[in-house]
Specification:
Blueprint: E1 2-6, E2 28-33, E3 41-42, E4 48-49, H1 51-63, E5 67-72, H2 77-82, E6 88-94, H3 97-100, E7 104-105, E8 110-111, E9 114-119, E10 136-140, H4 144-156, E11 159-163, H5 166-174, E12 180-184, H6 185-194, E13 198-204, E14 209-214, H7 219-234, H8 237-246
Helix pairs in contact: 1-7, 1-8
């Protein structure tokens, strides 16, 4: 595991803001998968960087708390949270019924949509899902995107070429062995941003969101972090992170820039109706 303490000396990282003479609060302990680019990925210096690393830092800044980030394997994050090792998870976790029955979630910080990556030269050819009919689509084998393509192959007539990694699937598009690659919208945006010759294309809406995870006995802290996320949405910070890490300016009304009423994700266990107004005041 790799730990990174985020402090105010770095502009993109969290600050510990305490009033003069007041006792310092303990650092918030959080964790994420440090290999899920562009949400979290290793740096050359041995640290970790990415959208969710910056998000954790900004939450700490708004709350006036130091944040200690641990990078670990995703499979171990939820058990470690439940065991009390972490205060919350800053990894992007898709909210579903099974998870919401065992965890508390903040409101969604981003939609978990799918998106295609296509060659620059053909980017104008794809404006709807129908435009991918009969095409060869490269995908990471065994992923949710692989399942989606398989489930809809009969309807759309596309040919699915599955690869061991999404990097290989992207390379298949570059090499002309596939017409497009399907992946998570943020991963697709990152691939297009980092790979000359590729462009981000059509996005499939799933209706699901990513949120931050807490134990069920942490409702007060969950609500406080939820309010911090609302602050980051209304003060423009989330849009800035999207532009920095995905090269995408969020559309008005999307989850990443739109506060959700109440606390948590509506329609799932753990959601609490509340009429508080999104604000950046009185968080620390």
């Amino acid at each position: 595991m790799m730990r990174l303490r985020l402090s105010s000396s770095l502009a993109a990282l969290a600050v510990m803001a305490t009033t003069a003479g007041a006792p310092a609060q303990e650092a918030l302990r959080t964790a994420l998968d440090g290999t899920f680019a562009p949400h979290a990925m290793p740096t050359m210096s041995g640290g970790v960087e990415g959208f969710n690393v910056d998000l954790a830092a900004l939450i700490g800044e708004r709350l006036g708390r130091e944040v200690e980030v641990t990078a670990a394997q995703f499979s171990g994050l939820i058990p470690a949270l439940q065991a009390g090792t972490y205060d919350f998870l800053s990894a992007p976790v898709t909210v579903n019924e099974e998870r919401a029955a065992n965890l508390l979630f903040t409101e969604g910080f981003m939609d978990t949509n799918f998106a295609f990556v296509v060659p620059d030269a053909s980017a104008g050819e794809y404006e709807t899902l129908d435009d991918f009919r009969g095409k060869t689509i490269a995908v990471n084998r065994g992923s949710a995107y692989d399942s989606y393509l398989a489930e809809n192959a009969a309807e759309y007539g596309w040919t699915v070429e599955a690869f061991g990694t999404n990097t290989d699937a992207v390379q298949a598009v570059l090499a002309g062995r596939a017409d497009a690659n399907l992946a998570g919208a943020t991963v697709a945006a990152w691939a297009a941003q980092q790979t000359p010759g590729l462009a981000l294309s059509y996005e499939i809406e799933t209706g699901l969101v990513w949120a931050l995870s807490f134990r069920q006995d942490s409702e007060e802290m969950r609500n406080l972090v939820d309010r911090a996320i609302e602050c980051l949405k209304i003060d423009g910070s989330m849009a800035e992170l999207s532009e920095k890490w995905f090269g995408v300016t969020p559309t008005e009304g999307t989850t990443i820039v739109t506060p959700t009423p109440g606390y948590g994700v509506p329609g799932f266990p753990g959601y609490v109706e509340d009429d508080h107004q999104p604000s950046c005041d009185n968080l620390s």
